[in-house]
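Reopening this ticket.

The earlier resolution said the output was attached, but the attachment link was broken on my side. Pasting everything inline this time so it's all in one place.
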Amino acid sequence: MNASSPRYDATALTRYATQLLQAAGLAPLLADSVADTLVQGDLLGHDTHGMALLAGYVKELEGGRMKADGAPLIVSDRPAAVLWDGQRLPGPWLVHQGLDLLLPRARELGTASLVIRRSHHIACLAVYLLRALEEDMLLVLACSDPNTASVAPFGGTQAVFTPNPLALGFPLGEGGVMVDISASITTNGMSNRKHKAGERFAEEWLIDAQGRPSNDPAVLFAKPPGTLLPVGGISHGHKGYGMALLVEALTAGLAGHGRADAPEGWGATVHLTLHDLSAFGGKADFLRQMDHLAGQCRSNPPADAGRPVRMPGERGLQRRAEQRAEGVRLHPTIAPSLREAEQRYGLRLADAQR
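Inline output:
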């Protein structure tokens, strides 16, 4: 993106996304939640997991692969541990519904967890961390997709895992920490974008089917396909491998549903745990410790004087405030991806420009 890219009003952008999702059949309340989550992703700067997903979601609705209305099935319900079957409902709506369920339980019990199996894709994990900052909670969020695979275990050459994101959010005295990382070095979304553009990564973040390191995302589309490398790469990929197994245990393992079952299409298995800061050492002491640590990180002498140390999520929160005031810049691939749907439903993304 560059300075000449158009800016979009966040409210108008959310309205456009809501209308498009409703036109494709999604129930109004669900469409509101999904649209807001996608726009929030772009506001935070996660431009592969915001509005970039909208065209794909519309196709999933049109094809009946994303359920357009309904409610999750309660499989198990204990005070601090709940399991839902998401029944292929939109992931963003399910996650927000899950947080609504967990918040009062975490305040009463100190900690509460929810696992959701058979959710559809849940978009940008960082968006849900905003609620932890707002509610004085520590949120741990993990996600896997048992329906596909693009990451090999360390030392292997055949995909077993998805990138398996793991997220952590908690407040500070001012702002908060928002960690949104994956067990793989890069993501499928970024790999697909670069492949379509004929671009390569700056470093060798993939391997081909013979295990040779590569920076070309085209290896993922070869026959036989290559894979993404786990965090740590060729030399220390056991770290990402361990993270991937952690996410699988928190999601598929606790859900009792995952890669051992028949695939159903693009989706997710999700783990959410909320910890109430006041239930342990107390909010004041939590902030005393974490603000002290944040100060040590931010004041740390940088290796590059032009790039001071930041807390995870700090730039995203700044970008969110800036784009709310000045307008949202979308990646240039997003508008073309929506044209077919716009023609079917008579909507125009351009109408949301500032």
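Reporter confirms the inline version is readable. The chain has one domain: 7-185+229-291+312-352. The chain has a mean pLDDT of 97.
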